[in-house]
Design a protein that fits this description.
Length: 76
Amino acid sequence: MTPTMNTPVATLMTLLKMEGAAEGWGRTDLIGEAAQQLLGTPEDTWNLTEVALGQLMVEGVVKPVGNHQHDLVALS
């Protein structure tokens, strides 16, 4: 996908609504996919996206789902 000027939170929310709402996303896969869509170095976009996902989880917008071994997350 083409990088955009989206924020990490907006990118995460878009991905969760598009593909992951029902069965959930693997946490690492979600962070990686969102980070690829942001402008910046891979390390910076990964870190920003990981922090944004953590914040969404703290706020209760995103929750863990299913078996914790798979580390899946979805919209609450």
